[in-house]
Amino acid sequence: MSTLHDFTATTLQGREQQLSDYAGKVVVVVNTASRCGLTPQFEGLQKIYDDYRDRGLVVLGFPCDQFAHQEPGSADEIGEFCTMNYGVTFPMFAKVDVNGSEAHPLWKWLRQEQGGLLGSAIKWNFTKILVDQQGTVVKRYGPTADPDSLRADIDELLEREVAR
User: Fold this and answer.
1) Which residues have CB under 8 Å from 88's CB, separation 6+?
2) What CA–CA distance (Å, rounded) separates 2 from 49?
3) Do residues 88 and 61 make contact, with C-beta atoms less than 8 angstroms apart?
4) What does the pLDDT look like over 98-128, one tens digit per residue?
5) What secondary structure, in 3-state letters, does 62-114 show?
6) Could you tell me if 134 and 27 are in contact, meaning their C-beta atoms sit under 8 angstroms apart?
7) Which residues pair with 128 in a beta bridge?
8) Backbone angles phi, psi at 133, to 5 degrees
9) Are the C-beta atoms of 79 and 92 separated by less than 8 Å?
10) pTM (two decimals)
């Protein structure tokens, strides 16, 4: 059985990142876009990252241009946009496909592990997937789910780990 920790992804800076580096952390994986009506969610995602990172949470952002061409930028443009407009400091990765035959292997696995309202397909930008410390998918949140709505589930996972 696969876990998040079995995958690698390319960072915005072009470096291969072993996702096993996040073992032991609660992870929020999110597909992002800089020209989407939901783009202001970067602010909320950064806030939960700031509030929880010292307790063992990381947010992993994956830019995606599959929905209405809302992420047309290069890696440098995406990074600059996220930093300049939303102060993003959580890890951001190279642009990926999240649906279809060219989908990144991580996203194929995430879709298989936790389907949404439209079956396993990712419906839109800012779909958020919560993964526990062992790399297992716990829950999928729709694009319009406010990042703050993940807090109770994040707290539960972090408390569960403390209790071990």
Assistant:
1) 42, 45, 46, 61, 82
2) 25
3) yes
4) 999 999 999 999 988 876 555 588 889 999 9
5) EECCCCCCCCCCCHHHHHHHHHHHHCCCCCEECCCCCCCCCCCHHHHHHHHHC
6) no
7) 30, 141
8) -65, -25
9) yes
10) 0.93
Contact 109, 2 (CB under 8 A): yes
CB-CB contact of 137 with 156 (8 Å): no
How deeply is 162 buried, as exposed, middle or buried, from its count of CB atoms within 10 A (0-12, 13-18, 19+)? exposed
Is residue 82 annotated as part of the catalytic site, yes or no? no
Hey, what are 35's tokens? 């020209």
| Cα first-last separation, the chain | 23
Considering 36, 57, 92, 158, which one is annotated as catalytic?
36
Percent residues over pLDDT 90 in the chain: 71
Judge whether 78 and 63 are in contact, CB under 8 Å: yes
Quick one: pLDDT at residue 119?
A: 59
For residue 133, give both structure tokens. 């410390």
CB 138 within 8 A of CB 131: yes
